[in-house]
Structure formats: C-alpha cells, structure tokens
C-alpha cells in the first residue's frame, strides 16, 4: 500500500504537467487560428496596408527629427524645448501650411499604429506564442494604441478641434487609473520594470545593429548603409536611454504611490537636462533622436514590410 501510495503521489506532478500543457494548447489554438485568418485578410489588402505602413514610418521619423532638433537647440541655449511627440506636432502646426502638414503627419501616424497592430495580431515579426513572444506582441499592441491616440490628436489639431497632446499628463492619468485597481501599486511597478526591460532591449539593438535585419541593404549604396547603421545605433541608444528614464519614473511612481512621478518622452528629456552635465547629455540625446528619425525615414522606403 505504501508503494502504491508513493507511486500515486509521484504521478501527480506528471498529471499536473499534462494538464498545463493541454491548457497552453487550448489557449494557443484560437490565437493561431485568429492569426492565420488575419494574415489571409492582410495579404488580400496589402496593396494599401503596406503603403500606409510606410507612410507611418515616415511620419514617425518626421516627429522624432523635430523632437531631436528642438532638444539640440535647448542644449545649446538657442530657444529649443525638451518636448515630446505631441509637442513636435505643436511646433509643426506653427510652420507655413502647418495645419496641412500636421494633418498629413496625423494620417501617417495612423498608418504606423495600424502597422504595429498588424505586428501584434498577425505575428508578422514571427515572435511566436511563447511567453516572451506574447509579451513583445503585447508591446506592439500598446505602441499601436499610443500612436492611434496621437494620430487622432494630430488630425484634430489640423481641424482645430483638439488641443496639443501632453504625454506627461497622459502618463500620469494612466498611472493614476492603474493605481486605482486592485494591487494597482504593484502593477505600476511591474509596468515600470517592463519599460526598463524594453529600454535594455533597445540598447542591445543599438549594440548589435539587429535593426539592419529589417532593411533591404542590397538596395542601398555603401555610404547609405553606413548612414543607416550609424543613425540606427545612435537612435536606438537614445530611445533606450529615454525609456530607461521613463521606466524608472514609473517604478518610482508605484513605489511612492504617487502618479505624478510618471513621465513621458518630454519629461524624460527635461529630467536629463536637469541632471549633472545636463546640456551635454541632452545634446547627445538630441543627436540620437534625430538619428532615430532619420532611420525611420530610411525604413519608410527600404524596410521589409512583412505581413505573411
């Protein structure tokens, strides 16, 4: 009896493992089915989805170049500003034909949101359904939502029906909402840690130049390839640094139970500017953000826009 009982207890972990595998399969199957169905639709509609996505990369590049140039002017004391993507739209609105330009960029940002959503739903980057892959796909979806909101704001600004968006205030509002949920403080800390993880991943992309895998390098000349690599490296490094500050602020917001600690890109740049050697660091960040914008503009033309 003792032996039989011992065998019964020993088999319990095996039964639990089999049950877990069945549960995982049950979750993956509908995801895979939805992905395959979405791919068929996307393949049929790629005649407009791909150009729309390329317009999105171009629009994203434009706003990052503006943010970087403004940060560089601020670092040099020439009247620039440490602003976010919404602030870049505000400055663009003041240019000649500003409303038309902001409207066009808004449509492009909508394209970027759609493309990131496709990456999340269709797994066009082949991240898979393992935990790490699903986390990355969720990140694509969150990016899509952020850019969709920015696109709506830009189009509203073009028609004078919306105010300039403020990423700091949005970040604080989202943090306050999350804190109001059960275990909200802990959830905010987890979100901050995830952002820090993404920041590390961005820095690793800069080091490894893995972003080049998405570019049709055979269509580029030698000089252009060097520009793509240099712009991508400084760009992803700068974004990693900015996300590191943003993630740290979110962790601090959760740790101190104070949503006002949360920051967006503009707040991160302002924090860097206020730090020791702030103008120097801000100048480096400005070069990186302009580099990232240039990389996005090149990607708009030469990126592998995978759907299947």
Overall 3D shape: globular
Number of strands: 0
Q: Could you say which structural class the secondary elements and strand pairing correspond to?
A: mainly alpha
Q: Specify the biggest β-sheet.
A: none
Count up the domains: 1
Give the proportion of residues in helices.
over 70%
As residue ranges, the low-confidence spans are: 1-11
Gyration radius, rounded: 22 Å
Number of helix segments? 10
Strand content: under 5%
Give the distance, in angstroms, between the N- and C-terminal Cα atoms: 57 Å
What is the N-to-C succession of helices and strands? HHHHHHHHHH
- Rounded mean pLDDT is 86
Could you characterize what this model shows?
- Helix content is 79%, strand content 0%.
- The protein has one domain.
- With 308 residues, the chain is mainly α.
- The longest helix is centred in the N-terminal third of the chain and has 43 residues.
Sequence-ordered SSE layout with sheet pairings:
Elements: H1 2-44, H2 46-75, H3 85-93, H4 98-122, H5 131-158, H6 167-179, H7 184-208, H8 222-255, H9 265-274, H10 278-302
Supply the key terms:
10 helices; mainly alpha; 308 residues
Put the structure in a nutshell.
This protein has 308 residues and is mainly alpha-helical.
């Amino acid at each position: 009896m003792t032996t039989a009982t011992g065998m019964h207890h020993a088999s319990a972990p095996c039964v639990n493992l089999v049950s877990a595998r069945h549960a995982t399969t049950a979750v993956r199957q509908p995801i895979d089915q939805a992905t395959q169905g979405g791919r068929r639709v996307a393949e049929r509609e790629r005649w407009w989805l791909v150009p729309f996505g390329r317009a999105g990369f171009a629009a994203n590049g434009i706003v990052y170049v503006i943010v970087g140039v403004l940060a560089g002017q601020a670092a040099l004391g020439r009247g620039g500003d440490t602003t976010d993507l919404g602030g870049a739209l505000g400055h663009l609105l003041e240019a000649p034909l500003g409303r038309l330009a902001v409207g066009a960029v808004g449509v492009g940002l909508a394209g970027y949101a759609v493309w990131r959503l496709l990456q999340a739903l269709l797994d066009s980057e082949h991240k898979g359904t393992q935990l790490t892959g699903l986390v990355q796909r969720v990140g694509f979806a969150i990016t899509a939502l952020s850019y969709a909101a920015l696109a709506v704001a830009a189009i509203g600004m073009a028609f004078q029906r919306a105010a300039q968006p403020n990423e700091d205030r949005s970040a604080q509002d989202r943090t306050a909402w999350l804190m109001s949920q059960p275990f909200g403080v802990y959830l905010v800390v987890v979100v901050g840690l995830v952002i820090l993880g993404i920041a590390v991943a961005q820095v690793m992309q800069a080091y490894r130049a893995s972003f080049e895998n998405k570019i049709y390098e055979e269509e580029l000349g030698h000089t252009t390839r060097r520009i793509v690599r240099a712009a991508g490296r400084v760009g992803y490094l700068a974004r990693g640094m900015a996300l590191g500050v943003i993630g740290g602020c979110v962790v601090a917001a959760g740790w101190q139970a104070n949503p006002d600690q949360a920051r967006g890109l503009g707040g991160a740049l302002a924090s860097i500017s206020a730090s020791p050697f702030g103008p120097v660091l801000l100048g480096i960040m400005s070069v990186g953000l302009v580099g990232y914008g240039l990389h996005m503009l090149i990607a708009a033309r030469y990126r592998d826009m995978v759907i299947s």
